[in-house]
Amino acid sequence: MKQKLIILAITLLSLFSFSAFITDDDPFTDLLKKLEEFTKKFPQEKVYLHLDKPYYAIGDDIWFKAYVVDSKTALPSTLSSILYVELINEKDSVKRQIKLPLQSGISWGDFKLTDSLGEGNYRIRAYTQWMRNAGPEFFFDKTIKIGNSWANKVFTKTSNQYSTENNTEKVNSTIQFTDHDGKPYANSLVSYEVQLNSRNIAKGKATTNENGEINIPIVNNQPNLYKSGKITATITMADKQTVVKTIPIKSTSTDVDIQFFPEGGNLVDGLPSKVAIKSINANGLGENVSGRILDNENNEILKFETAYLGMGSFILNPLAGKTYTAKIKLANGSEKTIALPKAQTSGYVLSVNNTDSVKMSIKVMLTTDLMNKGDLRLVGQHNGDVYFVTKLSTEKQLISVSVPKLEFPSGLVQLTLFSADNLPIAERLAFINNSHDKIDINVENLKPTYSKRGNVDLTLTTTNNAKPIQGSFSVAITNTAAVAPDLENESNILTNLLLTSDLTGYVEKPNHYFLKNDLKTRNELDNLLLTQGWRKINWKNIINNQFPAITYQPEKHLKISGKITKGGKPVAKGKVVLFSNTNGFFVIDTLSDTNGRFSFDQIDFTENIKFVVQARTDKNNKNTQIDLDIVPDQVVTINKNTGDVEVNVNETLMPYLAQSTKYFDEQTKRGFLNKTITLKTVNIVEKKNPAPNSSNLNGAGRADFVATAKDLETAFSLSMYLQGRVAGIMIRDGKAYSTRANGGAMSIVLDGINMGSDFSLDDIIVQDVESIEVLKSIGNTAIYGSGGASGVIVVTTKRGAGTEGNYARYSPGIVTYAPKGYYQVRQFYSPKYEATPDPKPDFRSTVYWNPHLVSDPTGKAKLNYYNTDQSGTYRIVIEGIDSNGNLARKVYTYEVK
Predict the structure, then answer these.
(1) Rounded Cα gap, residues 754 and 742, in angstroms
(2) How far apart are CA 868 and CA 504, in angstroms?
(3) Neighbour-count burial of 687, counting CB atoms closer than 10 A to its CB (0-12 exposed, 13-18 middle, 19+ buried)
């Protein structure tokens, strides 16, 4: 299906007026080989997450399925085996990160939205470590609104009025504070702070009026630097409790940014060219404008207007010696004058007409001085996979090409025109949307109407080109009465993997371009591509052998690795032991290589597992050091999806919040959901715990003997300190023995990890110890079972002492490490009412979620679930992929009465 290099020859000769053959001795072949080598050496991945809903509420669960594909082949990726998914708040802080195993590019997970989170515009970001080499621009990064009604006391509604005086932007923000029922918090003290681009520009205090409102004046005297920010407002309630609210400032003005983009890259004297226009307002959304093009003698050349989301185009034939400006009329009645890019006196124009549903019509125009100066090359490629390349003779000033769209896979095609000396001189993007690489999904047994709590029993039939296929699918079913879809703005597997994942910047309403395939929509999509950024393949870098630096390798499995040194020199053939007893005892060992490096790979572990890494070189372990390989966290970049940010999240989601609150209240009654209890400030005086951070199973400080860091200040070693201080304890060779137990040495528990009885107390640096607890009586050792038969010594190290990365070094040759393991995915609860009747009301907003519905060899898959107690139109969204990279998306609806 994915052809490597299609040379349009005999079968297409009727479509071409020139030779389409490239010979092996053609120098241009070397450039194509460089591209091939580049894409092999630096493959790229794309991630898409299918979410169960478009927005959420505090108390909800975010359910998602991940699809990771190879950018070049579109096949499910086998490059990476680990995916990172993050929930990021409005402060660009990662509130939750989970690590998921990938199997053939597939995984799934969830986030629980606890009431420790507030309402706001959150982001879900997903990437592999390998993707970090290309930068975060191509991560999956989606903005979602999360409201809060169920666990919220204060609701805000903000309106802004804008003005400009002497190049100073002024905003008057009015914020209203109300309770859950809309009653204003009158006469309440509010302190606030205003930030623009993370810079504090104002702060103050105000008292709400009878409507619960305050006014905050914002002055931006450097509008070119500070465009957006936030207001942090703290309101003091009647009971003296304070509630903090963060309100986004999307912009400080009503300015509109307008840019012009000549097709192919440049205007050229005497050659007619399409010029695209893009008009974006200060909130990051497209805003339609109209205008006139004037020459330098003030003659009107043409009129234009944008047709959709501030985008449009017109044809301009620049004349030699002329310059052009645009007089633009904005929606508010004001005007702007913008100079168009200056035309070149000599050059090329690459023009593409992509409005036909079956073929692309391509024209290449050149100025007369460039005629008969050698053959040009036209290359069409998709993410580095070349699908056609052909010579263009310069004997004529106009060259026409017609290319069937069936030759390409669905997605973005990059068309590049090369000069006779093999340099890129014009470039253009076009979008292909074929049906042969899509999966067709049909649903059997779907009735138009069901009852409340009615059983829905469906069979999915999946085919590609009328042949059954096996694929992995995700299914989300919601009630549109509670979860109203925004059809044009919703992202899905097609909009993401075929379009937005290959573009830089924000794409407004991506699904608009997939809802219809008519001429109007194809024109609107073409205008988007004429004005949107593209960075996947940079020909100049390939020509100059400027390849990206590889900092992060593809992760195939979890691993713990590092290096052993002694006196600063690598230790070869040193024994390294990895062990943990977090979830049962685990131990494994290995030897370091000649460079002192070691690795424990192909190990699987979940979150909250703590390990000890111990290196042994000889009897004298002094100066032995372990340095673990720590991958730095990915920096959180500024949200690029500014157009999706909502100032008044709760107000926008109010119908959904009202519905979800009923569900959360019912869950709370059943004990399935709990609110965090916030207590008023109470000063409690109690005896200080001598071992506050201890992992002692009896409880911190409950031991036969306790020593603190202060007690150990003059101690040379732990064994010398304990010798003679604890009755019934003898010290021999760094180990403690209880005179009341027969045989073995006492077990050492270091920061919650049982090091066993072979571990020496003198392996621990005494200055790093916060507390030591000796358990020797039966009352204190019984809880440790057979592991405490000889007694237990609990050692707790100082928090942060010796910390490097996210591991801690406590003594020569020993480190403890708590790496992030795989997230333990929860299962979506779907009741079976016929088997287990339940009289309690069912208010679920997500009716059903299945992240891994697999079709069998006949293309069949079964689906069975029960409706809720809510009537309305239920929406079934099915997405998926097969092993050949064919994509699926289908939406069905039915009524529940």
Answers:
(1) 20
(2) 41
(3) exposed
